[in-house]
Automatic annotation (TrEMBL), chain A:
Stretches the record annotates as Disordered: 62-102, 256-280
UniProt-recorded name of the protein: Uncharacterized protein
Biased composition (Low complexity): 270-280
The keyword Membrane is assigned to this record: yes
Protein species of origin: Nocardioides zhouii
From TrEMBL, chain B:
A Gene Ontology BP annotation from the UniProt entry: DNA-templated transcription initiation
SUPFAM superfamilies reported in the protein's UniProt record: Sigma2 domain of RNA polymerase sigma factors, Sigma3 and sigma4 domains of RNA polymerase sigma factors
Limits of the RNA polymerase sigma factor 70 region 4 type domain: 107-157
Domain RNA polymerase sigma-70 region per the UniProt entry, residue ranges: 18-78
Domain of life of the organism encoding this protein: Bacteria
Pfam families: Sigma70_r2, Sigma70_r4_2
CDD domains in alphabetical order: Sigma70_r4 (cd06171)
GO molecular function: DNA binding; sigma factor activity
InterPro entries (UniProt xref): RNA_pol_sigma-70-like, RNA_pol_sigma-70_dom, RNA_pol_sigma-E_actinobac, RNA_pol_sigma70_r2, RNA_pol_sigma70_r4_t2, RNA_pol_sigma_r2, RNA_pol_sigma_r3/r4-like, WH-like_DNA-bd_sf
Species, as recorded: Nocardioides zhouii
PANTHER family in UniProt: ECF RNA POLYMERASE SIGMA FACTOR SIGM (PTHR43133:SF50), RNA POLYMERASE ECF-TYPE SIGMA FACTO (PTHR43133)
Protein name (Swiss-Prot/TrEMBL): SigE family RNA polymerase sigma factor
Transmembrane spans: none
Length: 280, 169
């Protein structure tokens, strides 16, 4: 068979796919991806930095209508470990990611059997999109720098349910519960887990810039610095919108459930050889 | 972050849809998988349209389609068939004729007999017209391997044409 014959035959395959694309549907999903990327970037940046001083709209003690109170500043880090020598260069076997999607989804479904995965994306690089650093997947994939894996689920009527597992630069002395991390936060607790891991549970969270009526519960597990000098983090978000915090408290999954997923070993991501370079 | 240019994106999708649809189906051999694949890369392209639309969007989307398929294949999640490194040799030229267009359904079946790697190379090189160098880069092999693999795979796609008596000529 020749080049032209192959092309001609493929062109006439009966694919069963629509003759015309659903452009509106594609655009709607594309917009959702953009929103999620921005949200994740904002949340990740804030959680990682946790030093942003934001004038708080609510004073401690709350307003009596269920509006969250602000958590006290507290600083606890995962078990401190001396900075290891840089590890020798190594490569990551792509097969290490063979069941990453399934493992993460199984961890979620064990807690929320009705969950339906709607997005499954991973990232190996960073690019500039205008003035914003965007996380992206290169062509071809650089398996040595796959540093983040995100999944989004439909869970009942929740506005958003997402899980993320990632490797990041360690941030010594970071205050995981800080009044500056979010625009609003009703409570934040930290629990030391085995293996030097730290479980952080955030309740009544509103991220800076989010519209009124959007509330989240957020669980994160942070692991101690690895021999490779990186830090593993698992984030589990549940968000409701269009309601008061009092109403959202009833609708959102419990922090115990979110924390259980965040602690699940199946959420761990193989460690990359290195983090992708920040774009100039 | 600039707002995507909806008009140019829509124009692009309509223009590229036929080749993406056919290419995705040739790769996967499955309607839902092909639909997933095309949808995924177009959604990704729209989410980055401010950047993608400025350069060469069809090259970006075709390569994304192939990469998404390769990633899926490597994660071994969605294949109906079991990938094999080597497919059985078909009979020699005396028993088979060059494919006829009317045998296109048979071609779909024969594509499924190729390994995902062979199918990917064929679609990239002979349907999307990507240069051998680029195919080699995506597949992580030499240009020579692309040449030889495509040549063997094309040969295996030759379809037997039955005579009225059921014998092959």
């Amino acid at each position: 068979m020749t080049h032209d014959q192959f092309k001609q035959v493929v062109d006439t395959l009966d694919t069963g796919l629509p003759q015309r694309p659903d452009v509106a549907g594609i655009r709607a999903q594309g917009r959702a991806v953009r929103r999620r990327r921005r949200g994740i970037a904002i949340a990740s940046g804030l959680a990682a930095a946790a030093v942003v001083a934001v004038p708080l709209a609510v004073t401690a003690g709350g307003s009596g209508d269920g509006t969250p109170q602000v958590a006290d500043d507290t600083s606890v880090s995962p078990s401190p470990t001396p900075s290891p020598d840089p590890s020798p260069t190594r490569t990551v076997d792509p097969s290490a990611y063979d069941d990453q999607s399934d493992r993460m989804t199984a961890a979620v479904k064990d807690v929320f059997p009705q969950a339906r995965r709607t997005s499954d994306e991973f990232y190996d690089s960073m690019v500039m999109d205008g003035d914003v650093v965007d996380i992206t997947l290169g062509d071809p994939v650089n398996w040595d720098t796959v540093f983040r894996w995100n999944q989004v689920f439909d869970v009942g009527d929740l506005a958003l349910f997402s899980v993320s597992t990632s490797w990041n630069e360690p941030t010594p002395g970071i205050a995981w519960c800080s009044r500056g991390t979010f625009e609003l936060e009703s409570d934040c607790t930290m629990t030391q887990l085995d293996g030097g891991r730290l479980l952080v549970l955030h309740d009544g969270v509103r991220i800076q810039g989010q519209e009124d009526g959007v509330w989240s519960r957020y669980a994160q597990v942070v692991s101690p610095q690895s021999d490779g000098g990186l830090m593993q983090q698992v984030d589990v978000w549940a968000t409701e919108s269009g309601m008061t915090w009092a109403a959202a408290q009833r609708e959102l999954p419990s922090l115990e459930d979110l924390g259980s997923i965040a602690q699940d070993e199946r959420m761990r991501l193989p460690e990359p050889s290195s983090l992708p370079e920040l774009p100039q | 972050m600039s707002k995507p240019d909806d008009a140019s994106f829509e124009e692009f999708v309509h223009a590229s849809w036929p080749s993406l649809r056919q290419g995705a189906y040739a790769l996967t051999g499955s309607v839902p998988d092909a639909e997933d694949l095309v949808q995924t890369v177009l959604v990704r392209a729209y989410a980055r349209w401010s950047r993608v639309g400025r350069d060469n969007p069809i090259a970006y989307v075709r390569r994304s389609l192939v990469n998404a398929y390769v990633d899926t294949w490597r994660r071994r999640q969605r294949f109906r068939e079991h990938p094999v490194d080597e497919v059985p040799e078909v009979a020699g030229p005396a028993s088979y004729d060059v494919v006829a267009i009317d045998d296109r359904l048979d071609l779909a079946g024969r594509l499924a007999l190729l390994s995902p790697r062979e199918r990917t190379m064929l679609v990239m090189r002979h349907y999307f017209d990507l240069p051998e160098r680029e195919v080699a880069e995506v597949m992580g092999c030499s240009v020579g391997t692309v040449k030889s693999t495509c040549s063997r795979a094309l040969a295996r796609l030759r379809i037997p044409v039955s005579t009225p008596t059921g014998e092959q000529r």
